[in-house]
Design brief:
It is a single chain. The protein is an alpha+beta fold. The protein is built from 8 helices and 16 strands. It folds into 3 domains: 60 residues, Structural Genomics Hypothetical 15.5 Kd Protein In mrcA-pckA Intergenic Region, Chain A (Roll), CATH 3.10.290; 83 residues, 2-Layer Sandwich (Pseudouridine synthase), CATH 3.30.2350.10; 149 residues, Pseudouridine synthase (2-Layer Sandwich). 24% of the residues lie in helices and 27% in strands. The strands form 3 sheets. Strands 5, 6, 7, 8, 9, 10, 13, 14, 15 and 16 form a 10-stranded mixed β-sheet that branches. Strands 1-4-2-3 form a 4-stranded antiparallel β-sheet, with no helix packed on it. Strands 11-12 form a two-stranded antiparallel ribbon. A hairpin with a 6-residue loop joins β15 and β16.
């Protein structure tokens, strides 16, 4: 039996998230099982998964075993730094490359967060503030203090951030289509993978989703867009643009598969083999000073090379 004392950096965290962070390699299902069974105690009392822990709380945890293969996988996580866009004692903004998940899981051994933690063993606290799809590059924000994490996540939740993406889509974008206000529903596809689709506003589980679109450059067969998110739903940009009839170039889930295949054959020599979606700008208030910050990530070289060829 282990007795853990909650420190200041962990204060305010949900009990399940607190344990998942500390019990690396223990399956989520087991963590939730010991919480539900009452084997986990907070200050000698039973607690639910959504209980918020406070500094100084005593958390009793039953013995748990970490599988050897999980330990081996954790040891194999590469230490990696990413291009830094901004950093101070409160937060870290990096330029995430395409093809790297933000965190491990679902067949991915490690992501940005695990690799950064390995590269910075002296950093006591480091957590993701938000997410980007594995195929998406660009600005990714991480918190280095619990207080910064909660303050920044509140801004994302209250839609006080400003997020702009660069997207290359197939076809000629309609000049009068500047706002996409279509509700989305998250579910699973036939293979059991996460899938998002546009649904009727009358659907009881529909979530209103708003995307603003501005054409930056129109090419013969594709358009480069500035896409601003007013809501932050899963796969929102990818689904909204595809629903409008102009899927993102290279999108493996919601894209035009025939066009992607032909495109790959034509432009293989350029070294472009990804989805053209890049989080190029993120604006937010600094969690400690209140100063408005705007982080910008330049278009990756492979995207610039492709645009030059299209011109």
């Amino acid at each position: 039996m282990r007795l853990l004392t909650v420190d200041a950096d962990s204060a305010g965290q949900r009990l399940d998230n607190y344990l998942l962070r500390l019990l690396k390699g223990v399956p989520k299902t087991h963590v939730y099982r010991v919480i539900r069974s009452g084997e986990v105690r907070v200050n000698s009392g039973r607690a639910g998964a959504d209980t918020r822990v406070a500094e100084g709380d005593l958390v009793r945890v039953p013995p748990v075993r970490v599988a050897e293969r999980v330990v081996a996988a954790a040891a194999a996580v590469p230490a990696r730094e990413f291009p830094v866009l901004f950093e101070d004692e409160h937060l870290l903004g990096v330029d995430k490359p395409a093809g790297v998940a933000v965190h491990g899981g679902s067949g991915v051994s490690s992501g940005v967060i695990e690799q950064l933690r390995k590269a910075r063993p002296g950093q006591r606290f480091l957590e993701l503030v938000h997410r980007l799809d594995k195929e998406t590059s660009g600005v990714l924000l991480l918190a280095k203090k619990r207080s910064a994490l909660t303050a920044l996540q509140d801004q994302f939740r209250e839609r006080e951030t400003h997020k702009v993406y660069a997207a290359l889509v197939w076809g000629e974008w309609p000049k009068n289509l500047k706002v996409i206000d279509q509700p989305l529903l998250k579910g699973l596809d036939a293979d059991g993978e996460r899938h998002v689709r546009v649904v009727s506003p009358a659907h009881e589980q529909a979530r209103r989703s708003i995307t603003l679109v501005k054409v930056r450059r129109q090419f013969a067969t594709a358009a480069l867009l500035d896409v601003t998110l007013k809501t932050g739903r899963t796969h929102q940009i990818r689904v909204h643009l595809a629903h409008a009839g102009h899927a993102i170039v290279g999108d493996p889930k919601y894209g035009d598969f025939a066009a992607n295949k032909a495109f790959a054959r034509q432009w293989r020599s350029l070294g472009f083999a990804r989805m053209f979606l890049h989080a190029r700008e993120l604006g937010f208030d600094h969690p400690a000073t209140g100063e408005r910050l705007t982080l910008e990530a330049p278009l990756p070289a492979e995207c610039e090379t492709l645009l030059a060829a299209l011109r």
